[in-house]
Amino acid sequence: MHVVCFDVDGTLVSSAGFDGELYAEVIRDVLGVELKADLSQYQNVSDSGILAEIIERFPDANERTRLARDVQGKFVECTKRYVADHPHLIREVPGAVALVEALRRSPKVAVCIATGGWAETAVLKLRAIGLDPSGLPMATSSDAVRRTEIMRLAESRATQGVITRRTYFGDGAWDKIAAAELGYGFVAVGHGVDHHVSYPDLRDLETILGQLGV
Q1: In sequence order, what E strands does 44-125 have?
Q2: 125 plus 43 within the same structural domain
Q3: What is the total count of domains within the chain?
């Protein structure tokens, strides 16, 4: 079985811009902290991972728990409001839905989602582009902090069979690093990370399926 795993923001959904802006705004409003411009400076580039690193500066454990809950709750609400107010701005990365559906039809492929976003916001964005998350094995930042652990969970939810190949589609340097750590083949989407296998978007279905051996 070939496990093909996808990130969400910037890979399936053109949301990296507004998603990052909303996250930075919530961190600023709730914690009074400015998010680093280069997210790769954080140890774990996921919603829960970045938040955990930021709130380490607060000495009281109960306060950290409360602040984490407040940040997540406000971010989810802000994302819901943005999606409701700007439905025309929530778009698939061109070709994303067609690629996922083509892979799901293949008996040789187990498709899954592994995202550094929280579950509630990932589901919102996938539904907005026409992908039903209820039919997709998924792991998120709600499950784990480290992207590699998120990917392992997604894989385990996708198949219990013998895995012969693993591929991860992502758009960030942290995606490429996590894929390398786990022995996944990596496919870069967009122009955010340099890699020998890359596509500006996912429209070239025939070429991408051929590269995956499907």
Answers
A1: 109-114
A2: no
A3: 2
